[in-house]
Design a protein that fits this description.
With 347 residues, this protein is an alpha/beta fold. The chain is built from eleven helices and 16 strands. It has two domains: 132 residues, translation initiation factor eif-2b, domain 1 (Four Helix Bundle (Hemerythrin (Met), subunit A), Up-down Bundle), CATH 1.20.120; 205 residues, 3-Layer(aba) Sandwich (Rossmann fold), CATH 3.40.50. A hairpin with a 2-residue loop joins strand 1 and strand 2. Helix 2 runs parallel beside helix 4.
Length: 347
């Protein structure tokens, strides 16, 4: 199984996704700050993976503070949590995991520091293990939406590398293959950081799932020629009404899918929903370094001092989403009421 993060007694090992597929190197993190830096620089990416990494980062942070008195520990731990929270603004799983760790701490803060650290470690391990179970449930619910012989288009990377393991969008694909379905995946390269070409193609290669790599601007022609039966993507944040933030370019695919009558599915855990936001207009969109656009790896491809606009995400309106696949069930033609019913288990 692909393991993007590995927890060991004194460190968190993070598979450096910036180098895949050219190299498979793990970064050894011994401090909370090192984990936050790995999240910020995309060494680890994908909303669920970021959440799990952040939880382990806070365990490392707690260990750094173990010699402090309780009041000093409390203030310093909250500072580390605040710093971790700011590592990336769009993926809500980051803030979800940080808040979950803080809530766990608040309930045990009267205990001895050693016991607090041990309990926080147990909570981080639980978050990690729950994510793998959740992804497999998403795959189980979503696989019936994949017909035999389907030509599937995906964008960015929502596989094992983006999670604690197994994957969300690719988890659905993986489960369909496990059920014996003969499928083929078209992989958008996903400019500007090429997560599709570098990561999704690599994952499918490891799993021996048939795929073809395409540039982002080829998707429309494929749909026009009837070569795409299903589009399935992941998500970084989903608002209360179902508007969904995902890697830049997702919205364009959804518009194309609507025009060509292709089902457009989002696969995401319940932790990716942010019910404090009424719509996608309220989702913060991260803008990243211009070098991601002006360079491919270290090679400049644009004029020096070229003006650049580089939003990392866009928002797909709920009206363009055929269904959202969660570990609690499928939300077909999603809206606020259906989302709340599924998340609360009252559907």
């Amino acid at each position: 199984m692909i393991r993007p993060i590995i927890w060991e007694e004194d460190q968190l090992k993070i598979l450096d996704q910036r180098n895949i597929p050219l190299a498979l190197d793990y970064i050894r993190c011994f401090t909370c700050r090192e984990v936050a830096e790995c999240i910020a620089n995309l060494s680890v990416r994908g909303a669920p993976a970021i959440g799990a990494a952040a939880a382990f980062g806070l365990v490392l942070g707690a260990r750094e503070l173990r010699e402090l008195p309780k009041e000093g520990f409390k203030n310093a731990f909250q500072e580390k949590a605040s710093h971790m929270h700011q590592a990336r603004p769009t993926a809500v799983n980051l803030s979800w995991a940080v808040e979950r760790m803080l809530n766990k701490y608040r309930g045990i803060r009267e205990k001895d520091i050693k016991d607090i650290i041990d309990i926080l470690e147990e909570e981080a391990l639980t978050i990690y293990q729950e994510d793998i179970i959740t992804n497999k449930k998403i795959g189980e619910f979503g696989s019936p939406l994949i017909p035999e012989g389907a030509q599937i288009l995906t964008h960015c990377n929502a596989g094992a590398l983006a999670t604690a393991g197994y994957g969300t969008a690719l988890g659905v694909v993986r489960r369909a293959v496990e059920q014996g379905k003969q499928i083929h995946v078209y992989v958008d390269e996903t400019r500007p950081v090429l997560q599709g070409a570098r990561l999704t193609a690599w994952e499918l290669e490891q799993e021996k799932i048939p795929y073809t790599l395409i540039t982002d601007n080829m998707a429309a022609m494929l749909m026009q020629k009837g070569k795409v039966d299903v589009i399935i993507v992941g998500a970084d944040r989903i608002a209360e009404n179902g508007d969904t933030a995902n890697k830049i370019g997702t919205y364009g695919l959804a518009v194309l899918a609507e025009f060509h009558n292709v089902p457009f599915y989002v696969a995401a855990p319940s932790s990716t929903f942010d019910l404090t936001l009424k719509s996608g207009e309220e989702i913060p969109i991260e803008e990243r370094d211009s070098r991601e656009v002006t360079h491919v790896f270290t090679q400049r491809i644009a004029p020096e001092d070229c003006p650049v606009f580089n939003p990392s995400f866009d928002v797909t309106p709920v009206e363009l989403i055929s269904a959202i696949i969660t570990e609690k069930g499928i939300i077909a033609k999603p809206d606020k009421e259906k989302i709340i019913a599924v998340l609360q288990g009252t559907n």
